[in-house]
Design brief:
Length: about 400
Amino acid sequence: MLEFVVVATLAVCVAISIGSFGYLLLAICCVSRLPPKTGDAAARAPATTVLKPLCGDEPRLHEALLSFCAQDFPAPLQIIFGVRSPTDSALPIVRELKAQHPHLDIEIVVDPAVHGPNFKASNLINMMRFAKHDVIVVSDSDILIGRDHLRQITARLVASPATIITCLYRGAPAHPESWVSQLGALYIDAWYLPAAAVDGIVFGVTACYSPLMALRREFVATELDNFHALATAIGDDAHIGRIATERGRKIELAPFLVLTTIPETRLYQLFIHELRWARTMRAMRPGECLASIFTHALPVALLMVALSPGTVTALLFGFIAALRALLLATVEARVGRAPTAKTPTPWFLMFREFLYFGVWLWAFANRTIIYRGRKLSIQPGGRIVADDFVAAGLPLADRNPAA
């Protein structure tokens, strides 16, 4: 019996290792085709409203928000910053930006109204009432963009038949000296980004990415019900992509990548953050979550070598490790990495893969996540449940202890 278990386990490890070898080759090919082709260079940027939901101060927040205020944008541009509390620590930053840019149409919305357990969606719903223009850009608070990125993404939307233009991203450690912050950026650059490239190039773009996306207002008003459709969902970007795909709407990738800051400096914080991503994926795309083992199979390959030491298994393990390093080098060559991201040693890269394998395994333990200090339960399909979501969604200064 024990011999059968060992043989069966070895067979599974070999199959997963070979699959991982094939995936890494495919990922290198797909990443080599990044960034996506540019659209019509003559297309004009339309009047645009940018929605920036905020919740508290965070590392490099001023720099991230300033990158939106400093855009080279030839059309009318409205920027709406939204918070839920008058004591939110992000408010002094956005008020300072508004004072420093009097020529910009900047609106600050402070509205505690809750429309469901997803407070980011509630924030978007509250901000949407003040939107003036027919192109809506939604962006997370921790995103850094180039001076012409809004012009490029909105002009592409106008020039194409797409309903949504979404954007891939790279990780930017907010604390370059922190090895944990470097780990977080490394996951995005060497695991998330290649997987998204494979998904988009091989299967077509069906997902949206929350760092930056441009949407047609009629889609937001009808299919998204001015974001009310997201009020009970986790992974709002994934839900937007799902709704668009189900309605036959087209999604395209922007011809550039942006940066998302990685604020974590403690391993536990990073683990909780990545566990939220993994459990959201498990709820939204359970098949893809299972299949993602091929994207971080080095621990399985190591088990294969332990069960059957030999030249063939050792070579397969070595090839998988080498292809992972080559994939990261391809990412750096094609789209670059953040100035604060450091080139990892081979051992650091291997440790990063083992860590995410642990995150992936733990994602199947239960459906609970922690998001901005809140404990939520993800139901199949991505619906979230929170017991005391009204109090829990407030910034720390306004939050009463849970009973």
